[in-house]
Design a protein that fits this description.
The chain is an alpha+beta fold and 165 residues long. The protein has one domain: 2-Layer Sandwich (Heat Shock Protein 90), CATH 3.30.565. Helix 1 packs parallel to helix 2 and helix 2 packs antiparallel against helix 4.
C-alpha cells in the first residue's frame, strides 16, 4: 500500500452488517478477558461505496488498539451514524489515552507512544498508518481525540458520495 500498488475494490457496502461481523468476531476473541464491546449503530445507517476487506482491516486495527490500550477498563464502544455527507464510525476506549503532544504523531509510520505503559503493548507502529491510508483511499478522514488516563476516540468519516467534490 505504501507504494500505491494496492488495488481497492469499491462496492456498495452495508456498514451495519460489516460492523456487526467485526464486533462479533472480536468479541468472541476478547470476552474471556472480561471485555465488553458495545455497539451503538444507527438503524438507518446507509451503505457506502467501500472496499469491505480494507475497511474491515482498518476497523479491526482500531478495535484491537482500543483493547490493547484499555488498561484497567474493559469497555470499548463502537458507534456508527449518518450525517449529511458521510457515514461516521467511532471507536472509543476508556483506557490509557494518548498524551496531548503525541496525538498528532499516532498516524506516523513506526510511531509508538512514549511512556513505559504503552511501550509494553506489542505492535509494530504501522497499524494506525495503515488505517489512515485505507480511510484516505476511500476519500474519507480520520480524527483522534484523547485524554491521558480517560481514553481515546477515533472517528472515521466515509463520504456518501465520494465522486463529488
Amino acid at each position: 500500500m505504501e507504494e500505491g500498488k494496492r488495488e481497492f475494490l469499491f462496492e456498495q457496502t452495508d456498514v451495519k452488517a460489516l460492523l456487526s461481523n467485526i464486533v462479533s468476531t472480536i468479541q468472541d476473541r476478547v470476552q474471556h478477558d472480561g471485555f465488553a464491546i458495545e455497539t451503538q449503530i444507527d438503524a438507518s445507517l446507509v451503505p457506502v461505496k467501500a472496499d469491505a476487506s480494507a475497511l474491515t482491516q482498518a476497523i479491526n486495527n482500531l478495535i484491537d488498539n482500543a483493547v490493547k490500550y484499555s488498561g484497567a477498563s474493559k469497555r470499548v464502544v463502537i458507534r456508527a451514524l449518518n450525517d449529511e455527507k458521510s457515514v461516521v464510525i467511532e471507536v472509543e476506549d476508556f483506557g490509557l489515552g494518548i498524551k496531548k503532544e503525541e496525538v498528532n504523531k499516532v498516524f506516523d509510520r513506526f510511531y509508538r507512544g512514549g511512556d513505559e505503559l504503552t511501550r509494553t503493548v506489542k505492535g509494530s507502529g504501522l497499524g494506525l498508518t495503515l488505517v489512515k491510508q485505507i480511510v484516505e483511499a476511500h476519500k474519507g478522514t480520520i480524527q483522534v481525540e484523547s485524554e491521558t488516563g480517560k481514553g481515546t476516540i477515533f472517528t472515521l468519516r466515509l463520504p456518501l458520495y465520494p465522486d463529488k467534490g
